[in-house]
Amino acid sequence: MQRPPARSLSALLAIGVLILTGCGTQSGDPGEEAAAASPGRTITAQKFMRLTQPHAETGMTLLEGPVFGEDGGLYVVDVTAPEGKPKVMRVDVRKKTSRAVHTDGRGAYTSAQFSPHDGRLHLSDFVHGEIVSLAPGGGDPRTVFSGDVDGAPMNPDDIAFDQRGNLYVSDSRGLSEGEAHGRVVRIDRESGKATVLAENLAAPNGISFDDEYRGLWFSELTENRISYLSLDEAGAVESRHTAIRVDGGVAQTDSIAVDADGNLYQGLHGRAAMVVYDRHGERLATVELPARTKGLKSATNVAITPGGTKAYITVSGPAGGYLYTFDALAEGTRQSNGG
């Protein structure tokens, strides 16, 4: 595809993110009302470091997709970063430093995951409907998947891998029209064939395997619900049901991560907080920022240190893009990277 001029690209990125996150649909401060109706304990996350400031070209910054690599680095994407600014960053959590890993003039990357098959970092391009991959330390970009699925283009949001390296994608198709045309799509590692596992969904966003790889949790942004897909060994759907209804007020369900005990960490867009449920749907905790924190509107995603309990949330708003930390309820695993 021909590369659009810089000004057009910036507009495209900003529009794509507004579509993705439903920005402009929230008003007021839902924090106190939602917390008052929420059972479970409150966990206060602490500021770790600022990674980005709002970009002049796009008017915003939005951090997503935190994922730990084999090198111990925490990789984070900035959905709205313009050409020339880091679209993928590597954070050294011991030194509290970050460096650019990748930028380009086209992609609007909304998630990141390392493949268990080839170790490459996979990114979902929401605006252009593609999955691309990078070498583990950055570089060597490749297009893994592009094109229509069952005759319709994708808006891939979050991604997850099974143990064999097959890819599962939350497709937010229909969000811009307010229509329930979203899907969960499986992309076969060997053939590249895309199969629709669930459809007619309301802007699916978060997606993660459970702790035993028996099924997928996925959230629907505009319905504030989490559903569960039970899968067989071949990755086909055995059953599907609504598992959890999230009382978020004006906040909406964003990305999902799962810890070693099977607990779900549900990010929120429109409120800088995260809710934690057990596998049976009981609300265990709410992760909040310190009182009087200003300028941060969304806690989209989380990664928990593999084999440890230190968790890192991506938090964004007019004040910039930050990492906040808290102690998770159980250790981190591959599913604990929020996709």
Polypeptide structure, described:
This protein is mainly beta and 339 residues long. It has a single domain, classed as Neuraminidase (6 Propeller). It has helices at 6-21, 31-36, and strands at 41-44, 46-52, 63-68, 74-78, 88-92, 97-102, 109-114, 121-125, 130-134, 142-145, 156-161, 167-171, 182-187, 194-201, 204-209, 215-220, 225-231, 237-245, 252-258, 264-269, 273-277, 283-288, 298-304, 310-317, 320-327. The strands form five sheets. Strands 1, 2, 19, 20, 21, 22, 23, 24 and 25 form a nine-stranded mixed beta sheet that branches. It has a four-stranded antiparallel beta sheet with strand order 3-4-5-6, with no helix packed on it. The longest helix has 16 residues, at 6-21.
Could you state the CATH homologous superfamily?
Answer: TolB, C-terminal domain
Shape: globular
H/E element order: HHEEEEEEEEEEEEEEEEEEEEEEEEE
Query: Would you give the CATH topology?
Result: Neuraminidase
Q: CATH first level: which class?
A: Mainly Beta
Count of helical regions: 2
CATH architecture term: 6 Propeller
* CA-based gyration radius: 18 Å
**Tally of DSSP β-strands:** 25
Please give the domain count. 1
Strand % is over 45%
Poorly predicted ranges: 1-19, 21-38
Largest sheet: 9 strands, mixed
Q: What portion of residues is helical?
A: under 10%
Mean pLDDT: 89
**What class do helices, strands and sheet pairing give?**
mainly beta
Distance between the termini: 26 Å
Q: Could you give the topology of this structure?
A:
Elements: H1 6-21, H2 31-36, E1 41-44, E2 46-52, E3 63-68, E4 74-78, E5 88-92, E6 97-102, E7 109-114, E8 121-125, E9 130-134, E10 142-145, E11 156-161, E12 167-171, E13 182-187, E14 194-201, E15 204-209, E16 215-220, E17 225-231, E18 237-245, E19 252-258, E20 264-269, E21 273-277, E22 283-288, E23 298-304, E24 310-317, E25 320-327
Parallel strand pairs: 1-22
Antiparallel strand pairs: 2-25, 3-4, 4-5, 5-6, 7-8, 8-9, 9-10, 11-12, 12-13, 13-14, 15-16, 16-17, 17-18, 19-20, 20-21, 20-23, 21-22, 23-24, 24-25
